[in-house]
Amino acid sequence: FGSSGCPAPAPTRRGPPAPRAPPPAMTARLKKSRHLRGQVSNGRGRIGKHRKHPGGCGNSGGQHHHRINFDKYHPGYFGKVGMRNFHFIKHGKVIPTINVERLWPLVSEQTRTYYKEHTDKAPVIDVVKAGYMKVTGKGQLPEQPMIVKARYFTKEAETKIKEAGGVCVLCADA
To answer: What is the value of pTM for the model shown?
Structure first.
């Protein structure tokens, strides 16, 4: 009951569906322990008692009493490799790429038709402003000149742009 004396509303279910019930447990009469009733050591051997974790829990003893197993089946488990990189910036080497076939959609259809008629000029497509750095060479280009500005061009992209009558301009910043 809440502070007002009324029963609190039942909570509504949100989130992922409830987990399924586990499969029914094994029948007790079929368990191994039933078969071992009456035996003194319960299948654990006569000499050492059945203690909880005689070799240690988990990965313990990898450099001590379990060393042979670790060296044989998990070589290189211990130790370090390589140099440390303090203040590692994960996005430092990310280069967003765009294919040649997706260059024209960066400008409007009006711009494209305008420059198709006025062939003395060519549109400037600044790939860096659109959020890309590198132009790669997949796809076809229409025979229409354009000026493409980017930080990097692949050889294939450069040849395709030049064959269409365009120019590749390298720019360091936006």
So the answer is: 0.55
